[in-house]
Amino acid sequence: MRNLFYMTWMIGWILGACDGSPSRPAPDAGDDADAVDAADATDDLNNANNLNNVDPPLTVEVLGEYVHPFNEGPRTFRLLKLSRRDGGSAYAMWTRVDTFSPSPAVLLAQPYDGIDWTQDPVDTRWADRSRQEPASSYPDEDGPDYIAGVSANIAYSLSTLSALAESSNYYIIHGISPLLVFGRFYAGDDIAGTVNVLHAGLRFLEAQVDVDPQRVGIIGGSWGGFMSIYGAAYAPASLRVTCAAYFPPVDFGDMIDYVTVQMPQLAPEANAGVFSAFFEPYVRRIFAGRGKLGGSAGSWDGFSTADVCAGLRGDTLVLHDDWDTLVPFSQSTDLVAACPGVDALTWTHDTPVDWETTSLTHGPMSAEPVFPSMTSLATGYLISRLVPVGATRWYAWSRPAMTAYLARIRELEGRGESISPVAARLLEWLSPTSYVADFAADPLTIIPADEALADLLSEVWEETILPADVATWLTLRL
Question: Mind listing the domains of the chain with CATH numbers?
């Protein structure tokens, strides 16, 4: 379930992002109200997921700074330590973009990135080991209920501050302030602790007086999709959170049934043991979190589809492939069925997945050329909602990937199926100040969105669609 979504950094080519400079010692937190004004943020959840307790005041410590020299000029990221409502600490990377006042913001869920600047001995130990003993996986020794020689290993890689900064550039050029929140899977948090990490990040955004509480986004995939969808569901009540989640685990009781019962029966005997070993660290984190978001010990209260649905207040998009063998397709379809307001984009196939030949994968949707259409559609969902009307919007795509996806959509339409979900998403791209950047073109091309869509739709549907007619063409398919 590794995070697949650094692909959005490519839009940074527009600004020519380059290598960063060394980090500096932390400033006095009291001198930087813009970064650390947590005031007395003491929200309780105040929604359907209220846990009937008032959170302690949020505390924010600036551990350091990192300066990244984008072409527009150097930008300072602050490395933050945030208090969690369960007494633990969360870590985040933040830069304030002052294009708009107040600023839209986006929380980027980073479940696996190794970080070494937290002053936490766990992070230091993992980072040092990866430098001294490079490997693809390591013992999950900080995970819950770990048993040496029995528990499975987990992957770990140390992320550079430069790469992390670049991964946020797509949002920065839109005037959206990015907050990267680190799940630190290797540090061993269970699923309840991970929810509290996201909650701390959102409380930080809530406390920023220059962040627009009605324009906050969150995005992530797989385990990061869980972080995103649960972050949105358990967000402070004052925030309206727009969520885009790729193939997210939603109902953990059902996930356990899939991993421990269904998957071993579906997979060939030769693969079942290997597949089960892959999931074992996740299973331990799931079981360890039960009963910690309400309900009795060992219950799934707080971790069901109904619980997530009850907490979602902003626009929400899930994206999923029905050949996904890591997170079952039903995790998203059940959420959509329970929450009629949740939007979904799906990648479907005419036959069931072939378990005799498949590996553990999120399906072909994540393997489209250059970068997948899911990335274009998910980031576009956020940009359409977070960037103020009249401001420039840059929608990024790989033309071959979008062509492949829409060819399937046309096929489904020809069978009489509604393509309303796709039409609605593309319709959102149309405005006089919207452009499409095609990263499959050499050199990169940037043209008005109506022209780009007219050309693409004309090719796929084999008819002439003029830029002026795109909106009508899409509206007829809603």
Answer: 6-378 (3.40.50.1820), 397-475 (no CATH)
